[in-house]
Amino acid sequence: MLSASHGGNATAARRAPEVRVHAARATSSEKEAQVRFQISDLNFFYGPKQAIFGLSLKIPANRVTALIGPSGCGKSTFLRTLNRMNETIRNTRVEGEILLDGQEILSMDVVGLRRRVGMVFQRPNPFPKSIYDNVAYGLRINGYKGRLDDLVEHSLRRAALWEEVKDYLHKSAFALSGGQQQRLCIARALAVDPEVLLLDEPCSALDPVTTAKIEELMFQLKDSCTMAIVTHNMQQAARASDFTAFMLDGKLIEHSETSKLFTTPTDPRTEAYITGRFG
Amino acid sequence: MSGARIIWRKSLNYVMLSLTGVAALGVVSVLFLILGYLLWNGGTSLSLDFFTKLPKPVGETGGGMANAIVGSLKLLMLAALMGLPIGLFAGVYLAEFGGKTFSFVIRYTTDLLNGVPSIVIGIFAYSLVVLPVKHFSTLAGGVALGIMVIPVTVRATEEFLRAVPGSLREGAMALGASKWKTIATVVLPAAKGGILTGMLLALARVAGETAPLLFTAFSNRFWSPGWSQPTASLPVMIYTYAIAPYDDWHRQAWAAGLVLLALVLVANLGARFLLNRGNTVRSV
Q1: In what helix (H) or strand (E) does residue A56 lie, and over which residues does it extend?
Q2: Which chain B residues have any C-beta within 8 angstroms of a chain A C-beta?
Q3: How many domains is chain B built from?
């Protein structure tokens, strides 16, 4: 698994000891194979147009699950059903069952759900507020009354941004670079301590160095978080994820361990896609 | 391509360019003509007395328009208190909640309201507020101006809220914010520079309105004793003084015009400043 997710990566090599420790822990907990999200027979509609067809998938806890597939295959739509963000779009309808730790999310209080399932978007979308206020936002709207300072620092540290911004906490978030803004958005999502972090192509607007930083971050977050990432970048899926799901035309084609999916795909369409023959 | 065609094309280009330039120059020069004339006539008649003294009785020279300046400010305050909240909330509704048909109706009605002649709004406020109590009042003038403030505020609010990227709304909602909380804590603050600018411009526009005040706030040669009594205001004073047969009154009318213009200019500059500050927050 280690070689599949971080093989030949310069960043991984630099942090080699840490990786080894982490990998050891990962294998010991692998036996538990706790399921965080269990999706059964999910159908999704934009008005009369169906976008997801009978999708069933298990998302294991404390792992990174990558969703790959050509544009318009429904992977972002699927990701957004997991925290019910699609409800903000008019005329959408969802059928099927989505269980988060065994609880049906469609009947859950949406605020509580989104607190447990955070999201990072394609383009960094910091609020037009200070860095501090961005991170504190989720805590404040959830009525958190404790000491914000510590939690803000903790969240920024978890997002590997603290050292870069600790002297500018009250400067506008727009003063940050694109990569810093994206890590700020991750810190903002982490501040409410979500169990799951959904990442919708979080690196598509970023350069390779920053992308590497965010992948490294995802690796560190596995201890405390389950992650699902939509990506167009297959190298990224191969590097950063433990499991990969391949989607095509709204259907789940194949889902397995990343190392297996990329080396010995069972479906010919998966093979065609990962070898770059379409999409 | 023949040489003649090229010359024809080039000269046409030149002529049209000159035409647009002359028109632009015309616009600017009209403004500067008004400004210069007002400065020349108003500036020479302006004195400290104008700001501190009440109008003198007919026949005496001197005096000022302190009551009209205060009256105008009171009217604007009333207009702001009544018109701005309604305009703001309606704008929020249009930008964030409204469905297709209903929004269209509201938007269309707002545009119509914007086009209603100010004298008609004056009659409306007259029959609504003045007739039932049978006397002119500051309040009636405030109602008339408040109605005029609404459409501009609605459209400015809607426009600037729409300019806020949807990704910010998604970001807030993904953190568990309700729709209203998202609007109140993220969307409105992001658009506040533009919205405040629209509000200031709306107020600046109605500051110069005369017609709706003629039979609502009416006028007063003394300090207005209260909100339910008639009050003097700068535009109505200008009207009264400009058509009077006394040279001294004419001078005072010019001075009042200058003060009114200065008021509007300050509001405009303030709006510009707010808008710029709003932008810096967004783009630094």
Answers
A1: strand A49-60
A2: 165, 167-178, 181, 185-186, 189-190, 281-284
A3: 1
- Closest Cβ–Cβ partner in B172, B174, B281 for A118: B174
| From B170, B174, B190, residue closest to A128, measured CB to CB | B190
Q: Which string of b and e fits B249-266 if b means at least 16 CB within 10 Å? A: bbbbbbbbbbbbbebbee
Domain of B227: which CATH number? Answer: 1.10.3720.10
The predicted pLDDT at position B42 comes to 87
Secondary structure (DSSP) of A154-187: HHHHHTT-HHHHTT-TTSBGGGS-HHHHHHHHHH
- The token pair at B135 is 């006397």
Query: For residue B33, is it within any domain?
Result: no
| B124 Cβ neighbours under 8 A, 6+ residues apart | B144, B147
Smallest Cα–Cα separation from B125: which of B146, B104, B108, B105?
B146
Instruction: For chain B, give the number of residues.
Output: 284
Whole domain around residue B110: which residue ranges? Answer: 69-233
Taking only the tens place, the pLDDT of each residue in A179-213 is 899 999 999 999 988 999 999 999 888 888 888 88
Whether A141 and B171 lie within 8 Å, measured CB to CB: no
Please report, for chain A, the start and end positions of each structural domain, with discontinuous segments joined by +.
2-274
3-class DSSP state of B71: helix
Q: Evaluate whether residue B86 is within a structural domain.
A: yes
CB contact A112 to B (< 8 Å): yes
> Would you call A118 an interface residue with chain B, using a CB distance cutoff of 8 Å?
yes
What DSSP letter does each residue of B158-170 carry, written as one string?
HHHHHTS-HHHHH
Indicate whether B14 pLDDT > 90: yes
Residue B273 belongs to a domain: no
Tokens representing A148 are: 């914000």
Span B42-57, pLDDT tens digits:
888 888 888 888 888 8
Identity of the residue in A112, A114, A174 whose CB atom sits nearest the CB atom of B175? A114
Pick the closest to residue B212 from B151, B94, B129, B270 (CA basis): B129
User: Is A118 in contact with B171 (Cβ distance < 8 A)?
Assistant: no
Tell me if chain B has a CB within 8 Å of the CB of A204.
no
Q: Which of B160, B164, B168, B175 to mutate to test the interface with A (most CBs of A within 10 A)?
A: B175
The CATH architecture that domain A2-274 belongs to is 3-Layer(aba) Sandwich (3.40)
Average pLDDT, stretch B151-175? 92
Nearest chain A CA: its distance from B98 CA (Å) = 12
Backbone CA torsion sign across B94, B96, B101, B102: negative
CA–CA min distance B204, chain A (Å) = 28
Bridge-partner residues for A93, per DSSP?
A45
Domain-embedded: residue B37: no
Closest CA to B197 of B87, B282, B274: B274
Chain A contact set for B181 (CB, 8 A):
141
Q: Under an 8 A CB cutoff, do A188 and B284 touch?
A: no
